[in-house]
Amino acid sequence: MPSSSRFSGHGPLLCGLVATRLIGWGTTFYSPSVLMQALDRDLGLNAEIVFGGITILLVTGALVAPAIGRVLDREGTRRSMCVGAIICALGFAVLSMAQGPISYLASWFVIGIGHAMSLANVGNVAVAQLMGERTRRVIGLMMLVTGLSSSLFWPLTAILMDAFGWRATLLVFAAMQLFIVLPIYAAVPRFHGHPTPAAAGTAPASSLETGRVEPGKRRMAFWLTAFAFSASGLVSWGLPLHLISLFREGGLTQTEAVWIATLGGPATIVARAIDATLGERLPVERVALFGLLLGPLCCLILPLAPTGIVAAGIFVAVFNAALGVISVARATLPLALFGRRGFAAMLGQLTVPQNIAFAVAPLLFAVLIERLGASATLIFSAVIQFFGFFAMLALARMLARAPAVSQ
């Protein structure tokens, strides 16, 4: 089927999958920021415990993702996503009945299983199985829209809490999973397996199916990719949460720091939009290289720049633009490297080191800022990101030396 007709034929479903991402990330990753005050008041949970739920969600995803990935390659995504939506609904229902830290954190373990089965990387696998060669652009466009999750669900969660309380709000989240998300997942077509060209004397498999990495170099490519994105993720999931503190230490007022920090969202969206529309003209590893270089340079320049609103604003805009480019590359590079045949399993394996890095990042950067200060933390961030850049550079050189694969 031509890619244009494939896109139009699946347009409503792709829009539905965007909605599931908005709901999925908005009700899980972003909701504790709004729920925290009520949880502290009613259950006595401090910020470490509240956000510890996100840590449990990510670690749980790391533990189960490899097994889920193997199932997705064999059976497709529909069954896993449907079961995941039901488990997420159950998790939110259990969370609404939490009475203390143990029941609160246990609820996030349940949500983490559902999240890993239905959201996380599973949506990208569904797009790859549906869209073929248009996968990179479609994922980029979907991530462009889902970058608005916090903008939608922070105020929505606050409105629901003011009207009904936090326990009823969580039950509304459970209902969203059952009555909005589940029907959309059920509409995903059945997966009939990847083609096996060797079986009937057909043409050799294209790079879309087999990937660009030679069989003997796949392990090395895997570890270079895992290291590059884990190093970058350690910074991108840790440093932005503490930018307001960094700017205040640099001399800005609380109000100035908050408004400057809000520039990060629009910058990320603009970068994703540019990548989605123009990125297909370049190999994804080169786009990733650009982001992995831009991020550490920003972290090195800011401590040397004159303290002020302009320098902070430029840093936030450029740094978050780099993170936006890297986030799309993190979702699409494994497909280019390893092909559709093992895409889900490879994403599952890559999830393990990446989610561990994501999980420890917020606490690590809180400690670094407290112990080392703003400038030293930024320099540390730059060093970590440079390690990721050089890993991606080694991968790009490996791909440049590889023989051409049939298209």
From TrEMBL:
Q: Entry's PROSITE patterns?
A: MFS (PS50850)
Keyword tags: Membrane, Transmembrane, Transmembrane helix
Source organism superkingdom? Bacteria
> Which residues does the UniProt record annotate as the domain Major facilitator superfamily (MFS) profile?
12-400
Give the transmembrane ranges. Answer: 12-30, 50-69, 81-99, 105-127, 139-160, 166-188, 221-245, 257-275, 287-305, 311-338, 350-369, 375-396
InterPro entries found in the cross-reference section: MFS, MFS_dom, MFS_trans_sf, Proton-linked_MCT
Q: Which Pfam families match?
A: MFS_1
List the GO molecular function terms: transmembrane transporter activity
Q: Which SUPFAM superfamilies match?
A: MFS general substrate transporter
Q: Which PANTHER family match?
A: MONOCARBOXYLATE MFS PERMEASE, MONOCARBOXYLATE TRANSPORTER
| UniProt name for this protein | MFS transporter
User: What is the source species?
Assistant: Bosea spartocytisi
Which taxonomic lineage is given here? Bacteria, Pseudomonadati, Pseudomonadota, Alphaproteobacteria, Hyphomicrobiales
